[in-house]
Amino acid sequence: MKLIIAIIQPSKVEAVKEALNKVEVFRLTMIDCRGFGRQKGQSEMYRGHEVTVQLLNKVQLQVAVNEDFVEPTVNAIMEAGRTGPDGRIGDGKIFILPLEDCIRIRTGERGPEAI
After folding, report:
1. Max Cα distance, the chain (Å)
2. CATH for 2-114, among 1.10.3720.10, 3.30.930.10, 3.30.70.120, 3.40.30.10?
3. Which of 11, 26, 36, 68 measures 20 to 30 Å from 76, CA to CA?
4. Rg for the chain (alpha carbons), in Å?
5. pLDDT digit string, tens, across residues 51-88
6. Spatial CB neighbours of 87, under 8 Å, sequence gap ≥ 6
7. What angle do the packed helices 70-81 and 13-22 form, to 10 degrees?
8. For residues 68 and 40, is the Cβ–Cβ distance under 8 A?
């Protein structure tokens, strides 16, 4: 089992959800978050003054999957989350973490069956 954490642009959420549905991944958690990477924020005009926004709006997706779904899930997020054919700085990151256990609260099932 793996926990896939993806940080993506808010504008890509619907495309990523559709791509995940196509590879039969129907469960995910979304968290609104703020941060920056290599793009180091951006400048915006606010009431006639240029303001540098250090933390940009992002969306964090958390998807717990069994081993067979890791690559299809990652590929779906990469393809749908990428801006244009080559991507751009700020498109996001994907982290794949080992998932020691999973428990379904309703039934008490554990492990891969609980996902």
Report:
1. 57
2. 3.30.70.120
3. 36
4. 17
5. 766 778 899 999 999 999 999 999 999 999 999 889 99
6. none
7. 150
8. no
Contact 7, 33 (CB under 8 A): yes
Three-state DSSP at 108 gives: coil
Joined together, the tokens standing for residue 36 give 């920056």
- According to DSSP, the residues that pair with 31 across neighbouring strands are 60
Type of residue at 12: K
Per-residue tokens: 7: 């940080």
Q: Is the pTM of this model over 0.70?
A: yes
The token duo for 16 is 């990523």
- Long-range CB contacts for residues 19-26, cutoff 8 Å, separation at least 24: 19/76, 19/77, 19/79, 19/80, 20/63, 20/73, 20/76, 20/77, 20/80, 22/76, 23/69, 23/72, 23/73, 23/75, 23/76, 24/69, 24/72, 25/63, 25/65, 25/69, 25/72, 25/73, 25/76
